Amino acid sequence: MTVNRDELLELEREFWTGDEQFFAENADRECLVAFPEMACVMSNADLAATAKKPNRWRNLEIKLQGIVEPGSDIVVLTYEAKAVRENGEPYSALVSTGYVHRLQGWKMMFHAHAPLQPEGSKARN
Question: Which of 30, 54, 67, 121 could form a disulfide with 19, with the two C-beta atoms 3.0–4.6 Å apart?
């Protein structure tokens, strides 16, 4: 199966801004998530419940870093994301998302963020 890069990037954008219904329709039965403050397997319903506030992010920029297809029905993409939180705080991260192709289309089954330091800030040693 040939992956439609634009379709996957549009799904990614919607996961940043979409609502509970979007998450429920586009996340797999279970999804492994890894953020600095947590790493766990979440059910579709639990993951969808995290998206109660639509438009949590604004001014989203995605710079694709790479896509791999380890199987005919699995794809993983990595990108740099820059966005502004609802409270106005800037955020940037290196993000990876894995999708599995089901009868209903691509479903997110893995998602991880590695926050990047804000531009102009110095690393702490």
Answer: 54
For every residue of 69-83, DSSP letters joined together read: EEETTEEEEEEEEEE
Whole-model pTM: value is 0.88
Distance separating alpha carbons of residues 67 and 5, to the nearest angstrom? 8
Q: Is 108 exposed, middle or buried (0-12, 13-18, 19+ CB in 10 A)?
A: buried
Q: Is 125 inside any structural domain?
A: no
Lowest mean pLDDT among 4-8, 13-17, 36-40, 117-121: 117-121
pLDDT over 80 (residue 40)? yes
Total domains in the chain come to 1
List all residues 6 or more positions away from 71 whose beta carbon is below 8 Å from its beta carbon.
none
- CB-based contacts of 70, cutoff 8 Å, min separation 6: 76
- Is 124 part of a structural domain of the chain? no
Indicate whether 52 belongs to any domain: yes
Residues composing the chain? 125
